[in-house]
Design a protein that fits this description.
The protein is 50% helix and 12% strand. It contains 14 helices and 8 strands. The protein has an 8-stranded parallel barrel with strand order 1-2-3-4-5-6-7-8, surrounded by 7 helices. Strand 7, helix 12 and strand 8 form a beta-alpha-beta unit. Helix 2 runs antiparallel to helix 13, helix 3 packs across helix 4 and helix 10 packs parallel to helix 11. Bound molecules: flavin-adenine dinucleotide (FAD). Flavin-adenine dinucleotide binds next to strand 4, strand 7 and helix 13.
Protein backbone atom coordinates (compact mmCIF):
# COMPACT_ATOMS: atom_id res chain seq x y z
CA UNK A 1 0.00 0.00 0.00
CA UNK A 2 1.59 3.31 -1.03
CA UNK A 3 1.75 5.95 1.67
CA UNK A 4 -1.38 8.10 1.71
CA UNK A 5 -1.49 11.50 0.06
CA UNK A 6 -1.20 14.28 2.58
CA UNK A 7 -4.72 14.75 3.79
CA UNK A 8 -5.28 18.37 3.08
CA UNK A 9 -9.06 18.37 3.19
CA UNK A 10 -11.57 15.78 4.01
CA UNK A 11 -14.15 17.73 2.09
CA UNK A 12 -13.36 20.02 -0.77
CA UNK A 13 -13.59 23.65 0.10
CA UNK A 14 -16.73 25.46 -1.01
CA UNK A 15 -17.83 28.93 -0.12
CA UNK A 16 -21.08 30.81 -0.15
CA UNK A 17 -20.41 34.44 -0.93
CA UNK A 18 -21.85 37.47 0.78
CA UNK A 19 -23.42 40.10 -1.49
CA UNK A 20 -20.34 42.24 -1.00
CA UNK A 21 -18.07 39.41 -2.03
CA UNK A 22 -20.23 38.52 -5.01
CA UNK A 23 -19.83 42.11 -6.12
CA UNK A 24 -16.14 41.39 -6.36
CA UNK A 25 -16.53 38.62 -8.89
CA UNK A 26 -15.19 39.42 -12.33
CA UNK A 27 -17.73 39.78 -15.13
CA UNK A 28 -16.96 36.28 -16.42
CA UNK A 29 -18.05 34.83 -13.08
CA UNK A 30 -14.50 33.94 -12.02
CA UNK A 31 -13.17 35.04 -8.64
CA UNK A 32 -11.44 38.37 -8.60
CA UNK A 33 -7.78 37.52 -7.99
CA UNK A 34 -7.85 39.33 -4.60
CA UNK A 35 -10.86 37.42 -3.41
CA UNK A 36 -9.46 34.16 -4.67
CA UNK A 37 -6.32 34.88 -2.74
CA UNK A 38 -8.25 35.76 0.43
CA UNK A 39 -10.20 32.52 0.20
CA UNK A 40 -7.04 30.52 -0.37
CA UNK A 41 -5.39 32.12 2.62
CA UNK A 42 -8.36 31.41 4.89
CA UNK A 43 -8.66 27.87 3.60
CA UNK A 44 -4.96 27.22 4.14
CA UNK A 45 -5.14 28.76 7.59
CA UNK A 46 -7.92 26.39 8.67
CA UNK A 47 -6.17 23.43 7.12
CA UNK A 48 -2.94 24.35 8.92
CA UNK A 49 -4.92 24.70 12.16
CA UNK A 50 -6.48 21.28 11.58
CA UNK A 51 -2.98 19.80 12.05
CA UNK A 52 -2.12 21.93 15.08
CA UNK A 53 -1.73 19.38 17.88
CA UNK A 54 -1.62 21.72 20.92
CA UNK A 55 -4.75 23.55 19.75
CA UNK A 56 -6.38 20.24 19.01
CA UNK A 57 -5.52 18.95 22.46
CA UNK A 58 -6.87 22.09 24.10
CA UNK A 59 -10.02 22.35 21.94
CA UNK A 60 -11.06 18.72 22.26
CA UNK A 61 -11.00 19.09 26.03
CA UNK A 62 -12.55 22.54 26.34
CA UNK A 63 -16.25 23.13 26.92
CA UNK A 64 -16.25 25.99 24.40
CA UNK A 65 -14.66 23.80 21.73
CA UNK A 66 -17.26 21.12 22.24
CA UNK A 67 -20.04 23.67 22.11
CA UNK A 68 -18.77 25.13 18.82
CA UNK A 69 -18.23 21.74 17.20
CA UNK A 70 -21.74 20.65 18.06
CA UNK A 71 -23.01 22.26 14.85
CA UNK A 72 -21.25 19.60 12.73
CA UNK A 73 -20.56 16.81 15.23
CA UNK A 74 -23.36 14.99 17.04
CA UNK A 75 -21.45 14.60 20.33
CA UNK A 76 -18.62 12.73 21.96
CA UNK A 77 -20.22 9.43 22.96
CA UNK A 78 -22.12 6.59 21.32
CA UNK A 79 -25.15 7.67 23.32
CA UNK A 80 -24.96 11.16 21.72
CA UNK A 81 -24.87 9.65 18.24
CA UNK A 82 -27.85 7.44 18.99
CA UNK A 83 -29.80 10.39 20.39
CA UNK A 84 -29.00 12.41 17.24
CA UNK A 85 -30.05 9.51 15.01
CA UNK A 86 -33.31 9.17 16.91
CA UNK A 87 -33.98 12.88 16.63
CA UNK A 88 -33.20 12.83 12.88
CA UNK A 89 -35.56 9.92 12.52
CA UNK A 90 -38.28 11.93 14.30
CA UNK A 91 -37.73 14.63 11.66
CA UNK A 92 -38.19 12.13 8.85
CA UNK A 93 -34.59 11.34 7.89
CA UNK A 94 -32.43 8.28 8.41
CA UNK A 95 -28.74 8.48 9.29
CA UNK A 96 -25.40 6.82 8.81
CA UNK A 97 -23.17 6.98 11.88
CA UNK A 98 -19.48 7.80 11.61
CA UNK A 99 -17.25 7.29 14.61
CA UNK A 100 -14.62 9.99 13.95
CA UNK A 101 -11.01 8.92 13.43
CA UNK A 102 -8.76 7.95 10.55
CA UNK A 103 -5.27 6.60 9.78
CA UNK A 104 -4.84 4.72 13.06
CA UNK A 105 -1.28 3.83 14.03
CA UNK A 106 -1.63 0.48 15.85
CA UNK A 107 -3.71 -2.71 15.52
CA UNK A 108 -5.10 -2.00 19.01
CA UNK A 109 -6.48 1.34 17.87
CA UNK A 110 -7.96 -0.35 14.78
CA UNK A 111 -9.73 -2.91 16.97
CA UNK A 112 -10.96 -0.23 19.36
CA UNK A 113 -12.48 1.67 16.40
CA UNK A 114 -14.21 -1.52 15.28
CA UNK A 115 -15.49 -2.13 18.77
CA UNK A 116 -17.37 1.18 18.73
CA UNK A 117 -19.05 0.16 15.48
CA UNK A 118 -20.02 -3.24 16.90
CA UNK A 119 -21.61 -1.50 19.87
CA UNK A 120 -23.43 0.86 17.54
CA UNK A 121 -24.84 -1.98 15.46
CA UNK A 122 -26.22 -3.66 18.58
CA UNK A 123 -27.67 -0.43 19.99
CA UNK A 124 -29.29 0.56 16.69
CA UNK A 125 -30.89 -2.88 16.43
CA UNK A 126 -31.99 -2.87 20.06
CA UNK A 127 -33.66 0.55 19.78
CA UNK A 128 -34.91 0.01 16.23
CA UNK A 129 -33.29 3.20 14.94
CA UNK A 130 -33.11 3.74 11.18
CA UNK A 131 -29.32 4.13 10.98
CA UNK A 132 -26.48 2.42 9.16
CA UNK A 133 -22.73 2.78 9.77
CA UNK A 134 -19.99 4.43 7.67
CA UNK A 135 -16.44 3.18 8.11
CA UNK A 136 -13.06 4.31 6.78
CA UNK A 137 -10.59 1.54 6.01
CA UNK A 138 -7.68 3.58 7.40
CA UNK A 139 -9.58 3.77 10.67
CA UNK A 140 -9.48 0.00 10.96
CA UNK A 141 -5.86 -0.55 10.08
CA UNK A 142 -5.52 -0.26 6.28
CA UNK A 143 -2.20 1.61 6.61
CA UNK A 144 -0.85 -1.15 8.87
CA UNK A 145 -1.98 -4.22 6.98
CA UNK A 146 -4.58 -4.81 4.33
CA UNK A 147 -5.36 -8.20 5.88
CA UNK A 148 -6.08 -6.57 9.23
CA UNK A 149 -8.52 -4.09 7.67
CA UNK A 150 -10.13 -6.89 5.63
CA UNK A 151 -10.56 -9.05 8.72
CA UNK A 152 -12.08 -6.20 10.76
CA UNK A 153 -14.45 -4.95 8.08
CA UNK A 154 -15.52 -8.50 7.36
CA UNK A 155 -16.44 -8.87 11.05
CA UNK A 156 -18.49 -5.67 10.84
CA UNK A 157 -20.34 -6.88 7.75
CA UNK A 158 -21.06 -10.25 9.43
CA UNK A 159 -22.50 -8.34 12.37
CA UNK A 160 -24.55 -6.09 10.05
CA UNK A 161 -25.96 -9.19 8.36
CA UNK A 162 -26.90 -10.68 11.74
CA UNK A 163 -28.83 -7.55 12.76
CA UNK A 164 -30.08 -6.73 9.26
CA UNK A 165 -28.07 -3.54 8.89
CA UNK A 166 -25.65 -2.09 6.34
CA UNK A 167 -21.97 -1.10 6.27
CA UNK A 168 -20.92 1.74 3.97
CA UNK A 169 -17.20 1.83 3.26
CA UNK A 170 -16.24 5.51 2.86
CA UNK A 171 -13.86 6.37 0.04
CA UNK A 172 -10.57 8.02 0.97
CA UNK A 173 -7.72 9.36 -1.23
CA UNK A 174 -6.73 7.72 -4.53
CA UNK A 175 -4.03 5.44 -3.04
CA UNK A 176 -6.94 3.55 -1.46
CA UNK A 177 -9.45 3.58 -4.34
CA UNK A 178 -8.65 0.23 -5.92
CA UNK A 179 -8.19 -1.56 -2.61
CA UNK A 180 -11.48 -0.18 -1.28
CA UNK A 181 -13.39 -1.27 -4.36
CA UNK A 182 -11.73 -4.70 -4.43
CA UNK A 183 -12.51 -5.30 -0.78
CA UNK A 184 -16.12 -4.22 -1.18
CA UNK A 185 -16.56 -6.56 -4.16
CA UNK A 186 -15.00 -9.47 -2.27
CA UNK A 187 -17.26 -8.89 0.71
CA UNK A 188 -20.37 -8.44 -1.42
CA UNK A 189 -19.62 -11.61 -3.40
CA UNK A 190 -20.51 -13.72 -0.34
CA UNK A 191 -24.20 -14.44 -0.97
CA UNK A 192 -25.21 -13.77 2.65
CA UNK A 193 -23.61 -10.29 2.50
CA UNK A 194 -25.52 -9.17 -0.60
CA UNK A 195 -27.15 -5.80 0.04
CA UNK A 196 -25.39 -5.39 3.41
CA UNK A 197 -22.23 -3.66 2.24
CA UNK A 198 -21.69 -0.78 -0.16
CA UNK A 199 -19.08 1.74 -1.15
CA UNK A 200 -18.57 5.36 -2.24
CA UNK A 201 -17.67 6.61 -5.71
CA UNK A 202 -16.19 10.08 -6.26
CA UNK A 203 -17.32 12.03 -9.34
CA UNK A 204 -14.00 13.88 -9.61
CA UNK A 205 -12.10 10.71 -10.61
CA UNK A 206 -11.90 9.86 -14.31
CA UNK A 207 -12.20 6.17 -13.50
CA UNK A 208 -15.57 6.44 -11.74
CA UNK A 209 -17.82 5.62 -14.74
CA UNK A 210 -16.00 2.30 -15.10
CA UNK A 211 -16.17 1.63 -11.37
CA UNK A 212 -19.89 2.28 -11.38
CA UNK A 213 -20.40 -0.09 -14.30
CA UNK A 214 -18.50 -2.87 -12.50
CA UNK A 215 -20.12 -2.29 -9.10
CA UNK A 216 -23.69 -2.00 -10.35
CA UNK A 217 -23.23 -5.14 -12.49
CA UNK A 218 -22.75 -6.94 -9.16
CA UNK A 219 -25.71 -5.20 -7.49
CA UNK A 220 -23.55 -3.15 -5.11
CA UNK A 221 -25.08 -0.05 -3.54
CA UNK A 222 -23.12 3.15 -4.15
CA UNK A 223 -22.97 6.55 -2.47
CA UNK A 224 -22.05 9.11 -5.13
CA UNK A 225 -20.16 12.18 -3.89
CA UNK A 226 -18.00 14.78 -5.63
CA UNK A 227 -14.82 13.75 -3.80
CA UNK A 228 -12.98 15.37 -0.95
CA UNK A 229 -9.25 14.80 -1.37
CA UNK A 230 -6.58 16.64 -3.29
CA UNK A 231 -5.95 14.57 -6.40
CA UNK A 232 -3.58 15.22 -9.31
CA UNK A 233 -4.99 16.19 -12.75
CA UNK A 234 -3.77 12.82 -14.04
CA UNK A 235 -6.48 11.16 -11.94
CA UNK A 236 -9.22 13.72 -11.34
CA UNK A 237 -10.97 16.59 -13.12
CA UNK A 238 -9.29 19.77 -11.93
CA UNK A 239 -12.25 22.01 -12.86
CA UNK A 240 -15.34 22.12 -10.65
CA UNK A 241 -17.58 22.45 -13.72
CA UNK A 242 -16.24 19.14 -15.09
CA UNK A 243 -16.73 17.44 -11.72
CA UNK A 244 -20.31 18.70 -11.64
CA UNK A 245 -21.02 17.54 -15.20
CA UNK A 246 -19.59 14.11 -14.39
CA UNK A 247 -21.62 13.99 -11.18
CA UNK A 248 -24.84 14.46 -13.16
CA UNK A 249 -23.84 11.79 -15.70
CA UNK A 250 -22.96 9.28 -12.98
CA UNK A 251 -26.08 10.03 -10.95
CA UNK A 252 -28.16 9.22 -14.04
CA UNK A 253 -26.39 5.88 -14.38
CA UNK A 254 -27.13 5.09 -10.75
CA UNK A 255 -30.76 6.13 -10.97
CA UNK A 256 -31.39 3.81 -13.93
CA UNK A 257 -29.50 0.85 -12.43
CA UNK A 258 -32.44 -0.56 -10.49
CA UNK A 259 -30.35 -0.58 -7.28
CA UNK A 260 -30.96 1.62 -4.21
CA UNK A 261 -28.15 4.22 -4.23
CA UNK A 262 -27.30 7.42 -2.33
CA UNK A 263 -26.95 10.79 -4.08
CA UNK A 264 -24.67 12.58 -1.59
CA UNK A 265 -24.39 16.33 -2.12
CA UNK A 266 -25.50 19.71 -0.79
CA UNK A 267 -25.37 21.21 -4.27
CA UNK A 268 -28.87 22.34 -5.28
CA UNK A 269 -27.93 22.01 -8.98
CA UNK A 270 -26.97 18.35 -8.55
CA UNK A 271 -30.09 17.68 -6.51
CA UNK A 272 -32.37 19.39 -9.04
CA UNK A 273 -30.75 17.47 -11.91
CA UNK A 274 -31.32 14.14 -10.12
CA UNK A 275 -34.92 15.03 -9.29
CA UNK A 276 -35.64 16.14 -12.87
CA UNK A 277 -34.06 13.01 -14.37
CA UNK A 278 -35.95 10.71 -12.01
CA UNK A 279 -39.22 12.45 -12.90
CA UNK A 280 -38.59 12.19 -16.64
CA UNK A 281 -37.74 8.50 -16.40
CA UNK A 282 -40.60 7.68 -14.01
CA UNK A 283 -38.14 6.54 -11.35
CA UNK A 284 -39.92 6.29 -8.03
CA UNK A 285 -38.77 8.51 -5.16
CA UNK A 286 -38.54 5.46 -2.94
CA UNK A 287 -35.88 3.81 -5.12
CA UNK A 288 -32.98 6.11 -4.11
CA UNK A 289 -31.99 8.54 -1.36
CA UNK A 290 -30.30 11.90 -0.99
CA UNK A 291 -27.51 12.10 1.58
CA UNK A 292 -26.07 15.14 3.35
CA UNK A 293 -23.74 15.92 6.24
CA UNK A 294 -24.96 16.57 9.76
CA UNK A 295 -25.53 20.30 10.30
CA UNK A 296 -25.05 21.36 6.67
CA UNK A 297 -27.93 22.78 4.60
CA UNK A 298 -30.55 21.69 7.12
CA UNK A 299 -33.07 23.80 5.19
CA UNK A 300 -32.49 21.68 2.10
CA UNK A 301 -32.66 18.47 4.14
CA UNK A 302 -36.07 19.51 5.48
CA UNK A 303 -37.47 20.55 2.12
CA UNK A 304 -36.46 17.26 0.49
CA UNK A 305 -38.20 15.36 3.28
CA UNK A 306 -41.30 17.53 2.81
CA UNK A 307 -41.26 16.70 -0.92
CA UNK A 308 -41.30 13.00 -0.08
CA UNK A 309 -37.68 12.06 -0.85
CA UNK A 310 -35.64 9.69 1.28
CA UNK A 311 -32.87 11.63 3.05
CA UNK A 312 -29.99 10.15 5.04
CA UNK A 313 -27.74 12.27 7.23
CA UNK A 314 -24.06 11.39 7.66
CA UNK A 315 -23.68 11.85 11.41
CA UNK A 316 -20.16 12.00 12.85
CA UNK A 317 -19.44 11.72 16.55
CA UNK A 318 -16.54 11.08 18.90
CA UNK A 319 -13.83 12.87 20.79
CA UNK A 320 -11.58 13.14 17.73
CA UNK A 321 -13.77 15.86 16.26
CA UNK A 322 -11.20 18.63 15.86
CA UNK A 323 -9.72 17.84 12.40
CA UNK A 324 -13.18 17.11 10.97
CA UNK A 325 -14.52 20.37 12.39
CA UNK A 326 -11.64 22.45 11.05
CA UNK A 327 -12.16 20.96 7.60
CA UNK A 328 -15.81 22.08 7.74
CA UNK A 329 -14.58 25.60 8.44
CA UNK A 330 -12.04 25.35 5.64
CA UNK A 331 -14.80 24.42 3.23
CA UNK A 332 -16.70 27.53 4.11
CA UNK A 333 -14.89 30.12 6.24
CA UNK A 334 -18.16 32.07 6.57
CA UNK A 335 -19.14 29.29 8.99
CA UNK A 336 -16.94 31.02 11.57
CA UNK A 337 -19.19 34.09 11.58
CA UNK A 338 -22.23 31.88 11.70
CA UNK A 339 -20.88 29.99 14.72
CA UNK A 340 -19.86 33.19 16.48
CA UNK A 341 -23.34 34.68 15.97
CA UNK A 342 -24.97 31.58 17.38
CA UNK A 343 -22.66 31.62 20.37
CA UNK A 344 -23.59 35.22 21.16
CA UNK A 345 -27.29 34.44 20.81
CA UNK A 346 -27.24 31.74 23.51
C1 LIG B 1 -23.30 12.05 3.01
C2 LIG B 1 -21.94 12.40 2.48
C3 LIG B 1 -20.92 11.47 2.53
C4 LIG B 1 -19.67 11.75 1.98
N1 LIG B 1 -18.70 10.79 1.95
C5 LIG B 1 -17.54 11.03 1.30
C6 LIG B 1 -16.57 10.00 1.10
O1 LIG B 1 -16.73 8.86 1.51
N2 LIG B 1 -15.44 10.32 0.42
C7 LIG B 1 -15.22 11.58 -0.10
O2 LIG B 1 -14.19 11.78 -0.75
N3 LIG B 1 -16.11 12.56 0.10
C8 LIG B 1 -17.26 12.33 0.77
N4 LIG B 1 -18.18 13.34 0.91
C9 LIG B 1 -17.80 14.74 0.62
C10 LIG B 1 -18.02 15.15 -0.80
O3 LIG B 1 -17.11 14.47 -1.63
C11 LIG B 1 -17.85 16.67 -0.96
O4 LIG B 1 -16.55 17.02 -0.62
C12 LIG B 1 -18.81 17.50 -0.11
O5 LIG B 1 -20.07 16.92 -0.04
C13 LIG B 1 -18.98 18.90 -0.71
O6 LIG B 1 -19.49 18.78 -2.01
P1 LIG B 1 -21.01 19.09 -2.42
O7 LIG B 1 -21.48 17.96 -3.27
O8 LIG B 1 -21.83 19.37 -1.25
O9 LIG B 1 -20.90 20.32 -3.43
P2 LIG B 1 -20.13 21.71 -3.32
O10 LIG B 1 -20.13 22.25 -4.71
O11 LIG B 1 -18.81 21.55 -2.64
O12 LIG B 1 -21.09 22.54 -2.38
C14 LIG B 1 -22.40 22.86 -2.77
C15 LIG B 1 -23.05 23.75 -1.73
O13 LIG B 1 -23.20 23.04 -0.51
C16 LIG B 1 -23.03 23.89 0.60
N5 LIG B 1 -21.89 23.45 1.43
C17 LIG B 1 -20.95 22.53 1.09
N6 LIG B 1 -20.07 22.36 2.12
C18 LIG B 1 -20.48 23.19 3.12
C19 LIG B 1 -20.03 23.46 4.46
N7 LIG B 1 -18.95 22.89 4.99
N8 LIG B 1 -20.71 24.35 5.21
C20 LIG B 1 -21.81 24.96 4.72
N9 LIG B 1 -22.30 24.74 3.46
C21 LIG B 1 -21.65 23.88 2.69
C22 LIG B 1 -22.80 25.27 0.04
O14 LIG B 1 -24.04 25.90 -0.08
C23 LIG B 1 -22.24 24.97 -1.33
O15 LIG B 1 -22.42 26.02 -2.23
C24 LIG B 1 -19.44 13.05 1.43
C25 LIG B 1 -20.47 13.99 1.38
C26 LIG B 1 -21.71 13.69 1.88
C27 LIG B 1 -22.80 14.71 1.77
Amino acid sequence: MPSPLPKVFFFRPTFRLSAQMQHRLCENGQFHPDLHQTMSILRSAFIALSHHQPLRHFSERSALGRRLSSRFVAGMEIEDALRAAQSLQNQGTSSTLDSLGENVGTPDQARRSADIYHRLLDAVAGRKINATISVKLTQIGMDLSRDLAAEIVSGLVDHAVAVDNFVRIDMEGSPYTQATIDLTRTLHAKPENRGHVGVVVQAYLYRSAEDIAALTAEGIRIRLCKGAYQEPPALAFPQKSDVDANYVRLAEKLLTSGIYHGIATHDPNMIDAAKRFAREKFIDKSSFEFQMLYGIRRDLQRSLVAEGYNVRIYTPFGSEWYPYFMRRLAERPANVLFLARNLLKR
